[in-house]
Amino acid sequence: MEDLDEQAVADLAGFLEERWTEDFAMTLAEDQDATLGFALARALSCGWITPSEGMDRFIEAAQNLKKAVGDQ
Amino acid sequence: MKIADPILDLIGRADENRLHQVLDALIDLDGPSAQAVASYAGLPRSQFERLAKASTELRAVIAERPDCPHQVAATLVEDPDSDVRRCLASNPAIADEHLVMLASDTDEWVRWSAYRNPQAQDAHRAAVALLSPRDHLQIADQSECLDPATLPERLRELTLTSVMNPNQAKSRAELALNPNLPSDCVPDLMAAAIDRREWSCLWKRHGGIWPTTYAFMNPHTPDWTLTVLREFGHPAILLSGSVEQETVCTSPVDSLVQLIDSGLLVRALWRELALERVVELEYWNDLDEGDKFYPSSPSVPLLDPHSPAHFILGGYSEDREWIETDPYLSEDSAVRVAAQWFDTEGLFDLVDFDEDSLDLMAIAGLAYLMESESEGLSGLSLTESGLSVLNRVLERGDVYVEHNDFDTRVMVIDSSLPNITFAGTLNIQKVGLVDLLQASRGDPMLNSWGISSHFLMCIAMHPATPDHIREQLQDDEDPQVRLAARISMDGAQRGVAGPAQSLAGQMNTLVFSSLIPEGRLEEARIWLSQIIDYDVDYEFWNAASNLGIVEFISGNIQLARDIFETVRACGDGPTFEAEEYLARIDSGDVVRKRERPRYSDEWRQFPIEGATPHDDQQSHYYRSLRIMEANVDDKTLVDAWVKGRGEYATAFIDAAMDSEGVAALGISRETIAKSLADYVETVLLQLPDSSEARGQGIADLAAGNRPRAEILLRRAAVRGDREAASALASLLIADGQERTGNGWLTVSESGRK
Questions:
Q1: Yes or no, beta carbons of A47 and B386 under 8 Å apart
Q2: What's the pLDDT tens digit per position in B126-171?
Q3: Interface test with B, best of A49, A53, A58, A65 (most B CBs within 10 A)
Q4: Which of B25, B51, B235, B568 sees the fewest Cβ atoms within 10 Å?
Q5: Is the predicted ipTM greater than 0.90, yes or no?
Q6: Measured distance CA(B499)–CA(B200) in Å, rounded
Q7: What is the 8-class DSSP label of residue B402?
């Protein structure tokens, strides 16, 4: 995926690592697309996959969840 | 249950002392060998006495035998082991005095058996009733299907009823086990059998493994014993390395069943074929149907993993010490397992929220995306580091992996019976084995289940099989055996053909999977013409489509287009493939035209000797035609062409390519193939080229040469000649072949040419 925002992906991966607790996991459990978006972000950051078409939807869902959770 | 052993019977009739020696040697081997001796129908009294002092298992076997001598039974009735006394208590020929003793035995289950003994009278049952709980005093009804006392006519009626109802699998299995079942009922039970339980019960009708067969299965059997058994014609001589004997003294069916049930035949053939890389040994974990173990060949379909033949020959066995299995998770399985965990357990299954669980969640999420969202994320795949994380996560055991999820590698290791072999036998033994397999087809299971044919295919493909046996197998009654023999004549059994079922299907697969990728396009044309000239239905159109691919790759774009449009018009073949290539042609995706030697009568004047420019394929082609004219018997050539030109051509070309002159001159395989095809078809058969095929076909039809006319019209019609298609349609419809004729009518009306 050419126009994937690398910084956004890195932010999501960092956010996931920082907030990885049982409470956050339960929040993720209510939004599968966001969960998959965070999974993609971690996988991209760690080099487990390379960007490809169709990831935007999940990354966007993860970003929305990150915004919603904010600094709680 | 008593076990027959015709070899021991023969030895006993010839020399009783020798029989005792052999039996004692087999008892000394212990384990299943001694158990089988204890069940041997002709067991002499001295061995009864010996076994009465042997292990509990062996004492139990003889205690159960109705022919157990009275004095031996008198010892066993006071046996310290209750299992032995229980077996004696269930012996239907037990002496009254022994039954009385056992009816008041201290062991409840001994009394239970005594109560149910057919010899038991009221006095015995009363004795049991004094000591046993009431619920032990019920006698369950014997199933009529299983009861050996049921009359054969009644068993026939029960068979007819049970085969009509698919739900009566239990009754059918019991009928199969009934020794009184008339043998003419067996084919009906075979046809109705739906699972391994029924197959197993039917197969058991062949009886058990003979004691003497165990001798060949045991690496510790003394040589003198094996020598005696060979002298008396045990069937294992056919698999015994370098033994100059091939006369088996038992019936082909009994002999083959011994070689199968003992695993000796599978050990010799599958093991050696795997070592020679002719087959792959496959292993499937299957908790529902039982694990599967079978050989798989890319050339011919050897065994269907869901068939009775597979169940009888393969399946899991602890006894197969000549392989090692190594369970592993393939990448696909690992992704599937992780995806399933994410979908069913996922975040709710996590306990610790550390780096490991974060990796698990992320990698399982990716797996889920790969499995469930593969259309939207078509480029998603794991890198090497991703794969390594996936494996690490699964190895940690946080995700439950079922038995069926594992794939299994099979490794062939040293056999503990190195003398059991096919490769190491003499030709006379190999011939004996082939004769035995062919003669065993009188048995419905060996024949209809394809067991005899399976082993004949294995032999046909075995590199150590001499050509004269392969020639014999080319006339076998089973077309799959014939095919295996044909493709193996030139060593092509090592992975040339594909897994299709019909002969035509196999040829198509061979062309598509091997000849085309290897650029053997002239040869591919020869193989395909064999189907196109004679075959009909799907494989005909598949061959036509493959011919289109050959022409496409050769750069004959117009011809390829004509063929693909014909395939598309018929609507009965691989139309998707035709559409795909037509789209490629339309988009300008074409390849450079390949030069081919041209046929012209000039070859007749071409010098048969003398220099030709290196790599001048046109000259080589003319020279090859001259050489064929001078050296090849025309009638043999035409006969071979009509019978099976593909196999013949490949063998011919291979032989030609092996000659030093061909290599030195740089004559290509393609040139030899084309000169062979042109020599037969143009020179000998005088078939016109495709542009004149229709006209000549119609002329042949008028002249009453119907077979030749049909071939010519078919060839022209495949290449896009709609008038030829129309003439062919009329010909076939008038001949009563309406379905095929109507197919050609559709093609003729499809609006081209």
A1: yes
A2: 888 888 888 778 777 778 999 888 999 999 999 999 999 989 999 9
A3: A49
A4: B25
A5: yes
A6: 27
A7: -
